[in-house]
Design a protein that fits this description.
By secondary structure, the chain is an alpha/beta fold. It is about 40% helix and about 15% strand. The N and C termini lie far apart (about 35 Å).
């Protein structure tokens, strides 16, 4: 797996992992006070080996994590494997799991018409975020429609089918971020999931108003992010 280093003049590092059907460029407008280490594309398999190499090559002692959608599953994996290095773990638009029927329907649609399946998915992701979608439509959509093969898209859907959110025994500051208009990973699903955890392990859950599946693109996300880690 390829990683991209973006030095931004800060002391701390934020590791960013995108979701299915997106790559590192979806974080272009994210402005948080960190240098960024970005997964170049949405993860398809364990990224432990390549990430370990990045840590060694850049001599990173500590870092924070922000995993979005499918990327949240791999952010959790990294947090569990490097607990002594993780400062905070942010999970944006994570969903506890997807039903087999949902995944199989999406796979069938991708088989029939990959381009239209992606376009429909993107429109659902940007619900409530019209200006963000206009930027995406102009800057990224033309490339995204031809970037991934059907086989690659199916591979990512299989990950969502097989993996589920599991934050038990994570001993780092943790927060879920959801948009009020997210229909891909509705906020109540995470609220219900958190109630299944022991009280001592329940994470923070913050809502970004009028955001869909991409809350980190909203201007106010920076303020919400900072509020998550206040004592």
């Amino acid at each position: 797996m390829e990683w991209i280093w973006k030095a931004r003049g800060f002391d701390r590092v934020l590791v960013l992992l995108p979701g299915w059907g997106f790559d590192h460029r979806i974080f272009t407008n994210l402005d948080l006070p960190y240098n960024y280490l970005l997964a170049a594309d949405w993860p398809r398999e364990s990224c432990l080996e390549s990430f370990s190499k990045e840590l060694a090559d850049k001599n990173l002692k500590t870092f924070s994590l922000l995993g979005w959608s499918l990327g949240a599953l791999y952010a959790i994996e990294l947090a569990k494997n490097f607990p002594e290095k993780v400062e905070v773990l942010g999970l944006a638009s994570a969903r506890p799991n997807y039903t087999e029927q949902e995944i199989e329907t999406q796979k069938q649609q991708a088989h029939e018409d990959r381009t239209q399946t992606l376009l429909h998915f993107y429109r659902r992701c940007f619900l409530g975020q019209r200006s963000n979608f206009q930027w995406f439509e102009k800057k990224l959509l033309p490339d995204y429609q031809d970037k991934w093969t059907t086989a690659e898209l199916l591979e990512g859907l299989n990950v969502l089918k097989l993996k589920s959110i599991d934050v038990e025994n994570i001993n780092v500051p943790l927060c879920f971020f959801q948009g009020t208009k997210d229909i891909v990973a509705p906020a109540p699903m995470i609220e219900e999931y958190l109630l299944t955890l022991p009280a001592a392990e329940r994470a923070k859950h913050l809502i970004v108003k009028n955001a869909g599946h991409l809350p980190f693109l909203k201007q106010e996300f920076s303020e919400v992010w900072h509020s998550a880690w206040k004592q």
